[in-house]
Amino acid sequence: xxxxxxxxxxxxxxxxxxxxxxxxxxxxxxxxxxxxxxxxxxxxxxxxxxxxxxxxxxxxxxxxxxxxxxxxxxxxxxxxxxxxxxxxxxxxxxxxxxxxxxxxxxxxxxxxxxxxxxxxxxxxxxxxxxxxxxxxxxxxxxxxxxxxxxxxxxxxxxxxxxxxxxxxxxxxxxxxxxxxxxxxxxxxxxxxxxxxxxxxxxxxxxxxxxxxxxxxx
Length: 217
Known about the structure:
Strand content: 15-25%
Shape: globular
């Protein structure tokens, strides 16, 4: 995460992190979309693992279910959750957020459901990232001191707009004595410059899956 006062130079690809309640989302774009640099650092500036900071973990290959076995519960989660983003339903999205909050980006504190609700109501920060491309471009421009944001920077909603052009994989795994899920969605033939694989992590809380992290990969 880029904290207030840190320089943004040297990063490639898009990085959009929450900077706290008083600031909106920061997005930094590479000068060229053909850069061969990795799209995200292996560790934070402080040397900590992004996965550890988010308190989630990715499943190992041995934990992934066989391709022919599709868990109906995970399929339902996949369809309903992505529908909420695709249809632009912020209130329904909040219902998925864990009671412990959700980590957006890496090396950032968890945002509570109330904090996200404030951002959604004010149409800033995570609201722009998830639901509104025009708003996101405006915040990108403001973050980099430009008059206009790049036209091909897109919200998650726009990236996922055509379900027939999105490849989705949802895998459940055990982590620290609990059950978690990693959901990935990748748009095919997207015009968006930031249409990398989108990733979401969920934790089982009671009888429901709750969103705990939105990392960038």
